[in-house]
Design a protein that fits this description.
Largest sheet: none
Strand content: under 5%
Oligomer: single chain
Order of helices and strands: HHH
Distance between the termini: 68 Å
Shape: elongated
Helix content: over 70%
Length: 104
């Protein structure tokens, strides 16, 4: 068998195996598990889409990201202001000479 034909055959076997696992074997195993059945029932009952947390167009995810970014920016600005104030205080205390900044 030529090398190209073997490579294509192996690729087809992998695709078939993955399809068999995800489309046949996986659902069959989930149907046998009471825990997965309960999980699915709760999702259906509350209209929850568990994979949606990874999508950026979900409003809760976007609001959370914006709040986190705002908090980080405010924290960094406060930290920078403290460093500036500490340097000014150190310079004023040493007659204008630069002092070691021990706040790092």
């Amino acid at each position: 068998m030529p090398r190209a034909a073997r490579t294509i055959f192996r690729l087809c076997c992998w695709i078939g195996g993955l399809w068999l696992f995800f489309c046949v074997l996986g659902p069959w195993l989930f149907s046998l598990s009471p825990a997965w059945q309960r999980y699915d029932a709760v999702q259906e009952e509350h209209n929850i889409h568990s994979g949606a947390i990874y999508y950026t167009d979900v409003p809760v995810t976007q609001e959370s990201e914006e709040a986190t970014r705002k908090a980080v920016r405010e924290g960094m600005a406060l930290r920078m202001q403290r460093r500036i104030d500490d340097r000014k205080a150190a310079e004023a205390g040493n007659g204008g000479a630069l002092a070691d900044d021990k706040s790092h």
